Amino acid sequence: MVSDNIKFSGFSLAKQKELKGDDFYDVKTIGDLTVAIVCDGVGSATEGAQAAQRTTKHLMNNFKIRPKSWSIEKSIKTFIEAINAILYQESQVNYESSELVTTLTIVVIQGNRLYGANVGDSRVYLHREEKLTQLSSDHAMDEEGYENVLTQAIGIASGVEIYYFENILQKNDSILLCSDGLYNTLDENTLLTYIDKGAHALVKKASKLEEDDLPDDTTAVVIDILQADELQILKQQQLEIPKSLKKNQLIDGYTLVRPLIQNERTWLVHKKTKDYVLKFAPTQALDDEAVLDLFVKEAWNAKRLKANFFPKSVIPKNRTMRYYVMQLFHGEDLDSYLKNKHVTIDDTVELASTLLNMSQFLIKYDLVHGDIKPPNIMIAKDDDANLEFKIIDFGSITEVFSINTKSGTPSFLAPERFLDESINESTEVFSIGVTLYLALTGKYPYGEIEPFQNPTFKEAKRPSTYNSNIPAWFDSVIMRSIALDKEQRYTHYSEMKYELTNPKKVKPYFIKSASLIEKSPLLFYKIAFAAMTFTNFILIYFLLK
Q: How far apart (Å, rounded) are the C-alpha atoms in residues 403 and 482?
């Protein structure tokens, strides 16, 4: 499994010629967490394999529904104590002795921090800079000859002692979780040699050394840190969030000139000889972690999404407050522009191309803008008096196929968004289409929709109804982009972009319920003429009979 920051693998082999062993493992990505678990069912217990499987599933399922207010440490310890009590009590009822017994090792990765715990002798190692460090602590006897006798295990007693640890992760780190079958077979040098090759290579090497006759069940999970989680690093920075800002205030060398938005969290600023825009975290972020998360994500996206249709943005390394800096774009937003001026057909085609290029750029990151509309489009004239467009509002950018996103403005949302369907390329195309329609006609195709309104959609009039300058091909492109029926709308940006750049290949757009005379007048009259001729022929036949 591979994500932007993490790659992981897992593999297990049963001992000797057995088809199924007592080990059990799982690795999953749950929200912003990566959770990995290895359990080694105690062989001397009647139900060791069942205990290993149930412990793994219990922990994984509980992390899926973990209360957001709980820390990772509290979650790990609480969930372990719960499954220990369940297995111990069940054993006493069913067997009158501890038979549901297993070792456990678990790690949870959030951002650049590793949280872990173990009960028993399954281990966690950290591989960094050609060194292997054991992070877990074996619960086993120290006496010679009794090294394999456990002093702690899940389900062995009513209470459990948990060894807990935390570490900061770095790029190129690897974490190995394994049962004792692996480290009892492979020495540290061999672990170091094969850890980069993943879990499968480690377990197969152990099996090969034992001539495919492993003395114990052997399991490995390897997690590779591909790069540092910059988003979490940004969030964990200790930065002030100012409750109020005022004119001429000096912040990290930037002089605040005037607020650009009514909430006074976005400011025109001056530094040395240049003007910039500073956007500060909202004051709600002081008490609401979700608001802070959204702003950190916004700043991160603003910094990493480099393209000519976005204003250049940076996050200063030595800032003392939570803000980011944007290039000042000299112009006005499209919404304000349209109140006094008009855009030409050529300018609107260029706007459509810019919005589609921006959307195709974002989809490479599995992102969508989420709130395409005139107020989020800056407009100015270049040196040749052509209109130039920049897309703003990094705060609305969200993951494609998100369901619970609040991104978007009602009048620009596709009908399915009001039914809580996911945001995707097709719904973004709809927003682009509404923006083009509004730019050319000054009207919303389905009327202006108020927040919290549950709208009823009726078929829109063609934009050429209000603006006769719109050519038929562009009229069809816009109508297809705002189609209420998803099957008639463009599914992907590339489809709309192709027709936008190949006007001669654009097929006329008609709603499904359109009559034949609307869709093809020539065909309608041909059929009507043929029907009339046939009717006249029948009449003549009966008259002459």
A: 20
**Tokens at 272, concatenated:** 């040395």
Judge whether 154 and 104 are in contact, CB under 8 Å.
Answer: yes
Q: What average pLDDT does the structure give for the chain?
A: 90
Long-range own/partner contacts, residues 199-208 (CB < 8 A, 24 or more apart): 199/9, 199/10, 199/11, 200/9, 200/11, 202/11, 202/176, 202/178, 203/11, 203/12, 203/13, 204/11, 204/13, 206/13, 206/181, 206/182, 207/13
Contact status, residue 364 vs residue 405, Cβ threshold 8 Å: no
Which of 333, 424, 423 has its CA nearest to residue 375? 333
Per-residue 3-state assignment (H helix, E strand, C coil) for 188-216: HHHHHHHHHHCHHHHHHHHHHHCCCCCCC
How far, CA to CA in Å, does 339 sit from each of 190, 332, 409?
A: 72, 11, 19
- The 10s digit of each residue's pLDDT in 450-485 is 888 888 899 999 999 999 999 999 999 999 999 999
Residue 197 contacts by C-beta under 8 Å, 6 or more apart in sequence?
none
pLDDT digits (tens, 9 = 90+) for 390-402: 999 898 999 888 8
